[in-house]
Amino acid sequence: MNNYAIGIKEKRGLKMSNEIKVYLVKGKMMLSHDKFPIWNKFEIYVRAMKKEHAIERIYSELGSRHKLKREHIKIESIDEVPLDQVSDSYILKLLETNKMVKF
Residue 25: its pLDDT value, please? Predict the structure, then answer.
């Protein structure tokens, strides 16, 4: 991003933050849609810039994996987790990378 674009965003009051945080999202998802629906609990670690981005990521991932609609996903809590308390190996490997290649 060039200096001109950065200056415009700063004038609009938008702060640019390159710090990616790790969130632990807990909730329930309905996997059976019969007469007696079953709600299963989930706990997923998500990398995101803001809580709103983490929520969208959860809806996207659970929707694509389990073919769920947003109304069948109930998010109960979103907590920012310190990096030393993360137990997901995939998230830990992503945190170790120091540069990303985009094609």
Answer: 96
